[in-house]
Every structure is written in C-alpha cells, then in structure tokens.
Amino acid sequence: MRIRMTGATDIGRKRKGNQDSIFFDESHGLGVVADGIGGRKGGEIASSIAVNSMKRAFQSAGTIRHGEVNSFLISAIDQLNSDILARGQVEPEIAGMGTTMNCLAFVGDRLHLAHIGDSRTYLYQDGNIFQLTIDHNVGTFAERGWLKPNQVMPGARDEALVKGLGLGPNCEADIYEFELQVGQIFVTCSDGLSGMISDAEIGSIIRKNLSKFDSLPALLIASANAAGGRDNITVLLSEVRGS
Amino acid sequence: MGQSGYYLVRRECREFIGPMKLSEFQERLGRLEFGMQDEVSGHCGPWVILDRKDDLVKAYPEIAKALGEDLPLSWRENTGHAKVISRKDQRRDRKQKITEQKNSRSDFNEYLQSRKKQSTFRKQVALGVVFVSFLIGLAIVAKKDEAPLVADVATLATRGDVTEFLNVMGLKVIPNAGRLIKTNKSQAMWLPYLRMYAYHTSGAIDGVSTKILRGELPAAALQDCSVEGWKRKWRENAGQTVAFVQGKSLNKNPWTKLLAYDPFWIRRRAAKAWTKPRNYYEGCLMTASTAMRSFSGEPGYGSDPQDAVTAEVISAMSRRIQSQLEAISTGKSNATVDKSNFLAVLSCMESQTSVAALDACRGSLDLSFRPLTDERLGLAIIRIAAAQGQGSLDKATVSMLEGLNQKLSVEDVMSRSDVSPEVKFAGYLLGGASIDQALSKAELDYADVKFH
Asked: Taking burial as the number of CB atoms within 10 A of a residue's CB, which of A44, A53, B26, B177 is the most buried?
C-alpha cells in the first residue's frame, strides 16, 4: 500500500499568531499535527517541539517492526514530553507550555495513531466519516463518565483539556491501530477545523472534491475561516492507495 | 446516525474494526472479534458501548435490534453488566489525577499560579527540621526491621509453608506494607512476598496500590483480580458466564476470559518479583478460586437450592480453575471432560500429551465454535512439540501445524493473551529447525518465556 499525504496550516481569522505545527513525510509514512495550547506563552514552541521530536525519532529509528511501533511511539512521546518540560525549565517565561498532538505512523498495512489532547483524526471512507480519536477534554470525559462533577475544577469549560503534552511529567497518549484499506482517507486536524465546521461538513467537502486531493486542505481551511476562523486551523490528509 | 449503514468498532480503546455493514458486524461479533464492552459508531454518529442498551437503542436502533435477536443470552436478559468498560475504567484514576492538576487551555495562568503556590508550600514543609528528622527516623526503623524479616519470610515461602508464611506476613509485615514499598530498594525486597500474601488471600493489601501489586500489564489483561473484584464481576456477568460454561454463547466477560486462559501459556511466563504465584495470571486464578469458594455461603451466588443450574455451573467453573492451577503448577493436566462445549474442549486439549489425540478433543463441538479452537489446537501442538525437547516433528504434525499456522494470530482469540513467542517457535519449526534448535532460538528471542 502507498500513502499519499497533503496538508496545510492557517492562522485563522482571529489569532495573532499560529501555534499549530504540521509535518508529513510520505516516504516514511509519518504525519504529525500539533496544536500549541492557546492562552499560554510558548504554545507554538511546544507544538514545534512535538512535530520535530517525532520527525527526528522516526528518521533516526531505521526500520521499525510492526510489533514495536506502539512501544516506539510511547517512548518517543515520553521523550518529547520531557523535552517540552526541560525547555520550560531553562526558559521560565515559557514554562508550562503545552500542546496537543496526533501522530500517524503508517507501517505496512496498518496505521498506528498516537493521540493526546483535542486535535482529531477522522476516517473518511465511501462517503462515511468517523471520528477515531476521543477528545481529551472535560466535556467528553464527563459525558463518558470518566470524570465525576466533583472531580472537575469549578467553572471549567467543556473544552478545557485534561491531557496534553508538557502539562506534567506523566503523559499518557491513546495509541490506536487500524488495518488499512485502499481508498481510506484519514483526516487529522486541529480544533480550529473541527470546532468550526461539523463532521458532516468535513465529510461532504471531501466527498465533493475527491478528485482534487491536493486542494482539500485549502478547501477545508477556507470553510473553517468562512465559519468564523476563531482558531488556528491545520489539516493533514492521508490517503491509502494501492501499491 | 448510521444512516449510511456502515459501522466502525473501537475495540478496547486501542484498535478499530471496520467500517462494515450490519450483516458483517453481526458476523464479526459472532466470531468474537469484538465484544459487548466495545464501542460502535456510525457515520457522523456518537460512539456507544454495545453493552449500554439504552444508548444503543437511541443512537443505533438497528444494531440494538440485531443484538437483541441474535445473542442467546445477551443483555436482553439484563444480567446487570452494563458498567463493564474494559480499559476505560482503569484510565479513570489517571485522568482524575490530571484533571486535579487543573490543566486547561483557558485557565493556564491560574494553573501556573496555583502550582507555584503549591511548590513554595512544599519547599517550606520539606525544609522543616522536624519532618526531616521524622523521615530519617522512619528510614532507620524500616532498615532495622527489614533485613532479618525478608530472610525469614523468604525461607517460609521457599519451603512452601504457606500457612506459616501467611501468619508471619499477616502479623509482622502487612500492617506496615505501605511503608515497605515507599523506597525502590525496600519495594524490590518485599514485593514478591507482598504479592504472595495478596494472591493467597484477598488479592489486595491496604496501603499498596493494585497497580504495584499486579505490575505493568498489557491492556488486554484482567486488571482487577481481587476477590471482591471477582465477586462483583460475577454479579455483573453471571448470565454471560453461565451461558459460556453451558456452551450456549461465547463472550469475553472477565470470568470467561479467565476460564479460557491456557494454563501452559501462564506456566511458560515466569515474571520478575513473583514467587508463588509465578505471575499475575496465576494470581488471578488463585483469587478467582477463593472468590468461588465464598459463593457457597452467600445468597445470589448459586447457593440457593432452587438455583441448581447456576450451582452446577459454579461447580464446573471451580473444576476448570483447579485444573488450570494444577497444569500451571505441574505442567500436566488430568481434566476429565465431556467434549460438547468449548470450555471442555480446551481442558481436553490441555490434558493431551500426543498430537494424534488432540483433534478428537473437539468431538461434537458445535461447528460454529470450531474455528475458535483452531488456535488452541495449534498452541497445544506447539506445547507437545516443545515437551519432546529434541528430534523433529513428524510429517503429519508438520502438516497439521502448517494448516493452523495461518490461524495463529499474535493474540489468543479468547483470552487476548500475547502468543507471539509461541508463534515464533512454530515458525522456526516450520522453517525446518529441529525441536531443540527451535527452542534455543525462540528462548533467545524471548528470554522471559520458558518453552520447555
């Protein structure tokens, strides 16, 4: 199987800077989207550390066997979490910076997906769209019964993160595996996209523009901006093709 | 939601199956590729745990209807297991901790301030002379107590004097257990004996977290093996378990997972910092056995004379667990079984010492269940081959193993145990290696697994 990737990032219409970062490399089957935590200094640094650390980890790892990918992802994420914390220690003005991250590693006929925070990865297939990742925020956790009302900080908003990189020494990412089929498209995005347009709209834009794969990120970003563009918007699309 | 007719399943919060049509969904559920504790989503729809009937009816009525019609003993009968959520329950504690740290996008400055305040407070306290002296005193007392006592309990444990071991531990060690695991050194000394005590009694020790007791485990492993945990799981899953033991349905509730454990798989895996039990999985069987013994005195656990079916099932479960424990301990199983249900087939295969007799174990098992036993057949051949220790496999066995090798996945289908070492061993055999060569190679690859 071959993976074709395309992606883009945009500042949006309200923010003064872009704290999102994106990296993708078709030859290594690697895609990373990170969204620096807004309202904190250094969000853009944290997201940049995230994508660069994952990039370095994969590029220096050589061949990784199927059975080793998940443990590799876990240790790479632990390392990059430490990197973010360490950077905060030497530069106190950005201490406490944090970021979300979705890292997609395509190995053979499987996708290994590491997820932390509220950036999302969707699966688009035959007109259907499914959200694969679980948002690590108060609203979702409360809805799933993983948080009780007395465990939530008073006044915390539903979108407040409960997990992220750089937020503490213990960082537990969700790791998923997915058996690939030709024709699948994985849409990875920051909440600047998923917070502005619905899943159905994302699916619809992809369905209507399948023949213009390379233009899809720009089209999705334009829709999010048209809906208000309140946050930075980053989109990565990974399409599974026959070899 | 689900209007397009395609569904995706998220299995144990770590793997996706699909997308698939409803008919395929039913087939794959029937093949136990996922279970009722897993989640399903349709196009643009929410994720719903299959066990949560009300949510399922609301979001995907077509799935709820299909499940209601197809499962012989399903939640239709409301056995009270709606809260079983596999890994998610275990994650709660960790998530709670993180939330308590008040990490949020919107309140970061407030969060930083509160952390700074906490940090200053901690420094002041930590610098207090009284506190430091107290810690030093505690450490000295601990050191004085530990050295001779570890040797004492180690001797009792090695000698196999379990009653005396439990007495000494109960009187002298367990009241201070929380203190003994505070430092890495002390924990390393005491953990094997704390575990031995725990799994010979209630499966838990006050002051010692279950995570420390069980150690790092794969996500698919049973996570709560305390006696109380087993009793709770019985209350929640009695219907499913009874159906499984009677051979009426296959499911993956914790009791059925336990009953389906291959004892030889457990026996091969000696773990560091464990004595008796040799690893967590044997510990789970021991506490489950303890839990079952307590059923007889309590209402609602099959002790009611009118509940003869449940009582009979409990008795069969006890026999199964005893045969598993015996096989782990001795490397042999002498289970006497009828061959008509899945559990009996597993026991039968475990008791065979020749490849030729294995296939007969499947006897009159319902054809739809037979594919599930293929994998165990393969594992049994591997066990018997390894026990030979030398020589080569005969042609018939090689051919049988070749046929089954395709069906051996890296995970056992019922218990979700990682069987990749066994698969690797089979690969060496099929690649032409003699048994002793295959053993050497596989044991080099997997130092913690003892095949022979």
From this structure: A53
